[in-house]
Design a protein that fits this description.
single chain, two-stranded parallel ribbon, 133 residues, mainly beta, globular, 1 helix, 5% helix
Length: 133
Amino acid sequence: MPQLPRFAAWRFADAVAGFEVVYASDGELRGHTSAVEGGMPYAVDYRIAFSRGWRTTSAVVSSDTLDGRRTVILSVNGDGRWTVDDVPRPDLDGLVDVDLEASACTNTFPVHRLDLPVGETVTASAVYVQRST
């Protein structure tokens, strides 16, 4: 696994007005994002643990909106079985990645894990977490 930079930060362009910062350590990304989209503000913080093979092992995602704060805890065992807030979710079984609607960095997991040919498209199914849920 290549050494990741200690942090990265960027401003969102086009669809939303916002900012994201992510901190990387061995086997974990933790970050914060905040934006205003469609006149509605939100903030999301996350902590995603992953294996040396860039497979998600757990994620804690908290969103803060005008409706209040909500936290969701996702985990996957070595057999690809998922739980959400400690409740088994067989409909998610077999998925490898977590994709956060509010974060660009979660798209890097399949990029690092898969041998992606230049100019070709591949499918990478993921557990999709919306900021409002």
